[in-house]
Amino acid sequence: MAIRLTARSGAVLAGWLAAVSVGTAQQRANFVSCPIVRDTASVPCWLTEYEGELYFLTLQTDVSAPVTPPWLGHRVLVEGTVSDEPRICGGKVLKPVTLSVLDRDASCNTTLPAEDRYNLTFEPPRPPGPSRGRLAFDNVPAAAPRPAVTPATREFVVAYPFDGLVGFSHAGPLTAVLEFARTVTAREIEIVGYRGAVRLSNGQTIVEEATIGKKRAEQVAMLLQGANLNAPSYKVGWQNEAAAATGVDDHLARRVVITVRPR
Questions:
Q1: CA distance 117 to 89
Q2: Which of 246, 249, 244, 248 is nearest to 196 (CA)?
Q3: Which residue of 136, 188, 203, 234 lies most exposed, with the fewest beta carbons within 10 A?
Q4: If DSSP codes are grouped into helix, strand and coil, which group holds residue 187?
Q5: Residue pair 27/81 in contact by the 8 Å Cβ criterion
Q6: Given this model, what pLDDT does residue 127 score?
Q7: Shared domain check, 172 and 110
């Protein structure tokens, strides 16, 4: 059955589609700002302000948490989706959210006092005490026994903050590569580094530094070899051109792809 649109109904439909498009676009929040710390009775909150709105970023937790907190004294790149969850510490929730610590900025030093209305119930992600180790393979809990692995080529993707290299959050992904390569007696490990860009909500685009893909690939190869994974041959490459930025999940372009080929 054919559906005939009158001029009036066509105008209504066009307006509705435009409203839906605007509403969807407004759910994204990509911007550079100063982080703010709000104290609470349990654990500090990290917030930020953009265009008059306060946003909740994350809690101050262990370095192995999914979202690594920003730093005071530095600007932060925020890439997130506005959630309809209740506000936390007074800020709209961005979920999911990706945070990248940027250059120093002495004006980024705002701290807010604790208020009873913002007290949180918080369970730490690990037992009290300092985290173990500093970098790639030193901060991972003991893994549960795994079933036997059928030797097959496997690809791993390691994500990065903007202009970032390996940090605390990479312990898990790199350990997974190391364990798999040892289990299948890897013949070759191919590592390719990529460079990204971000389209901000204000229409501007920022691009990672020119050699970051090379640095990422070479550092991963160095770390795997430094963990005594020397039997496989290594094929290391990178892409100098930054991926096109769309404003939607641009952070996925900032990565290293590791392909492990068994004997």
A1: 8
A2: 244
A3: 203
A4: strand
A5: yes
A6: 45
A7: no
How many structural domains comprise the chain?
2
Q: For residue 145, what are its two tokens?
A: 């026994």
Instruction: Give Cβ neighbours of residue 20 (< 8 Å, ≥ 6 apart).
Output: none
| Domain harbouring 71, CATH code | 2.40.50
Among residues 160, 100, 172, the alpha carbon closest in space to that of 131 is found at: 172
Calpha distance 100→162 (Å, rounded): 5
Residues 158 and 225 in one domain: yes
Task: Let me know the angle formed at the C-alpha of 58 by 134 and 28, rounded to the nearest 5 degrees.
Answer: 120
Model confidence band, residue 23 (pLDDT cutoffs 50, 70, 90): very low
Confidence band, pLDDT 50/70/90 cuts, at residue 148: low
Q: How does DSSP classify residue 183?
A: H
Tell me the CB-side half-sphere exposure of residue 69, using CA atoms within 13 A.
Answer: 19
Task: Report the relative pairing of strands 186-193 and 233-238 from DSSP bridges.
Answer: parallel
Does residue 127 fall inside a structural domain?
A: no
Tokens of 197: 């860009």
Instruction: Place 62 in a pLDDT band, splitting at 50, 70 and 90.
Output: low
First to last CA, the chain: 60
Residue 149 is assigned to a structural domain of this protein = no
- Could you give the CA distance from residue 77 to residue 52 in angstroms, rounded to a whole number? 17
- pLDDT digit string, tens, across residues 186-235: 999 999 999 999 999 999 999 999 999 999 999 999 999 999 999 999 99
d(CA 179, CA 168): 18
Q: Which of 64, 96, 118 is the last residue of a domain?
A: 118
- Give the domain range for residue 92: 25-118
The per-residue pLDDT for range 232-251, each reduced to its tens digit, is 999 999 999 999 999 999 99
Tokens 């890439």 appear where? Answer: 79
Burial label for 121, CB within 10 Å (0-12, 13-18, 19+), is exposed
